[in-house]
Write a structure and sequence with these properties.
The chain is mainly beta and 315 residues long. The protein contains three helices and 23 strands. The protein has three domains: 90 residues, conserved putative lor/sdh protein from methanococcus maripaludis s2 fold (Beta Barrel); 83 residues, Beta Barrel (Elongation Factor Tu (Ef-tu), domain 3), CATH 2.40.30; 87 residues, Beta Barrel (OB fold (Dihydrolipoamide Acetyltransferase, E2P)), CATH 2.40.50.100. The strands form four sheets. Strands 1, 2, 17, 18, 19, 20, 21, 22 and 23 form a nine-stranded mixed β-sheet that branches. Strands 3-12-15-14-13-16 form a six-stranded antiparallel β-barrel.
């Protein structure tokens, strides 16, 4: 018996130490308290006037162009116009001297009243416009029918819009639209004409759109965006764009709603029309008491711990 006593004491001491709680082990409540919480802002669903918008690309164009051509063979006399110069209908734009007149100096013979032909030909503009290109210089020798300049009519300025055939039911002649310029300006416009041809490869039909208000100085072939309303404006619940989350394919959408002051849950939603900063929420129906996360919601799991920084009241 005495030889087994030390071994028994060691077993007793080991049992006592294994059953005693560690002095520095944190309690369950303390471990939960140190978990990080996302700082978020919240708001409520608001009712705004929205419309389902069809946005398409278009190019600026001057469809009514006037080609100024030489009416005979000869030499161009100074002065010669420059690109960008405005011309009036019937205004002399180029002066042409025939090669016979230059050789015989007919333009300087003034003594004989029977000599009615001086060899000076004046080429006039057929319509008012602005010279887009000037192809010849003073002193150049030109052939009969050769192009001298190209002018365009600013009054016929517009935009060429190619509409996919799948969207033709949303576009009609006379329909109002909004023209978004690259610098952020928005011009009111209207669908003016439709061409009775379609692109066989792209399956698009061409329309022309013209501004209905003052038109700034714009070049040809400027890429713009044109908005056409698919539906009439209506009053509907909306949320800020940042409040609505989606998957990578943008086929599933959801928002994060507060269950209490420290927990947010994931709620699937069905979205409708999307504007620049607001998105229509078609379902479910949220009440004025439902608090939706507006920021800090990205990457949160379902029933995530959050900390409300402030409550944002939507106007």
């Amino acid at each position: 018996m005495p030889r087994f006593l030390p071994f028994t004491l060691l077993l007793a001491l080991a049992a006592c130490h294994s059953g005693a709680p560690a002095a520095n082990a944190p309690a369950d409540g303390e471990e939960a308290a140190v978990k990080p919480r996302a700082v978020v802002t919240v708001g409520t669903v608001q009712r705004d006037t929205v419309a389902d918008v069809l946005r398409l690309s278009a190019l600026s164009a001057y469809p009514a162009k006037d080609v100024l051509r030489a009416t005979t063979t000869g030499y161009l006399l100074a002065p010669v116009p420059v690109p960008g110069q405005r011309v009036a209908a019937g205004q002399t734009v180029f002066t042409l001297q025939t090669k016979e007149s230059r050789v015989l100096h007919l333009d300087k013979l003034t003594g004989d009243p029977r000599l009615r032909f001086s060899g000076i030909i004046r080429i006039k503009a057929g319509q008012a416009g602005v010279l887009a290109t000037v192809d010849k210089l003073a002193g150049d020798y030109v052939q009969d029918g050769e192009q001298l300049a190209l002018s365009y009519d600013r009054a016929r300025f517009g935009f060429v819009l190619d509409v996919p055939v799948t969207q033709l039911r949303y576009v009609r002649v006379g329909q109002p639209c909004r023209i978004h310029l690259p610098d952020g300006r928005i011009l009111p416009g209207r669908v003016a004409e439709v061409l009775a041809t379609a692109d066989a490869a792209l399956q698009t039909q061409r329309y022309t759109v013209r501004p209905t208000g003052p038109v700034p100085e714009l070049p040809e072939n400027l890429a713009v965006q044109i908005d056409l309303d698919r539906t009439a404006p209506r009053l509907t619940p909306t949320l800020p764009r940042a409040a609505v989350l989606s998957d990578e394919t943008q086929t599933q959408f959801w928002v994060m709603r507060l269950l209490n002051d420290s927990t947010a849950a994931k709620v699937p939603v069905r979205v409708g029309a999307q504007q620049a900063d607001r998105i229509e929420i078609q379902s479910p129906t949220f009440g004025p008491q439902d608090r939706i996360l507006l920021s800090g919601n990205y990457g949160l799991d379902d029933t995530a711990a959050v900390k409300v920084e402030r409550r944002t009241v939507e106007k």
